[in-house]
Amino acid sequence: MTALDFFARWRVRLGYLLAIVALCLARPTPRSVGLGALLGLIGLAIRAHAAGYLHKQEVLTTTGPYSRTRNPLYFGSSVLMLGAVLAMNSWWAGGLLFVYFALVYTLVMRREEMELRQQHGVAFDEYAAAVPLFFPRLLARTAAPLASAGFSWKQYRKNHEYQAAIGFVLLLVGLLMIWRLRG
């Protein structure tokens, strides 16, 4: 198993362990949790929008948010992570989460790109040349889409995106409990 495979398979489980460490470092306040929740909601909305378009292992998704960035789910996760860091109110927790995210998701995106290139060949190469890897462009890609599927709540549910929302709510509740215990 390569490092790319390891992080792709274990990133969520490692994230849970990291969350425990980050919670121990957290110094939340009601204000930090509220502000973090607002930013996190933006991240969740980005992820939800992307998940409603994504047909994993079926087609090369290039419409909707995928016309602005090849990785809208991970971009949404980065905004969600920034919301969590803001809610935690800790430079140490923030640094830890940032290093984890940068390392793991750089490797995961590289692995997924290799798989997509192998599965879709030239179509993926053309898409990759036209759409940025991570940071979204303001204007959508103007070329004809490779897949014409629109947003679907069925796809959102099929991709289990609601789990990210549940996890974030549990994090916020945990942070408020930490604040109450320390206050």
How would you explain this protein's 3D organization?
By secondary structure, this protein is mostly helical. The longest helix has 30 residues.
Oligomer: single chain
Q: Work out the radius of gyration.
A: 17 Å
How large is the share of residues in beta strands? Answer: under 5%
Give the N-terminus to C-terminus distance in angstroms: 46 Å
Task: Enumerate how many helices there are, as a single number.
Answer: 7
Please state the structural category: mainly alpha
Measured as a percent range, the helix fraction is 55-70%
Q: Please tell me the total number of domains.
A: 1
State the CATH class.
Answer: Mainly Alpha
Short description:
The chain has 183 residues and is an all-alpha fold. It has helices at 3-25, 30-51, 72-88, 91-120, 122-130, 153-158, 162-182. The protein starts with a helix and ends with a helix.
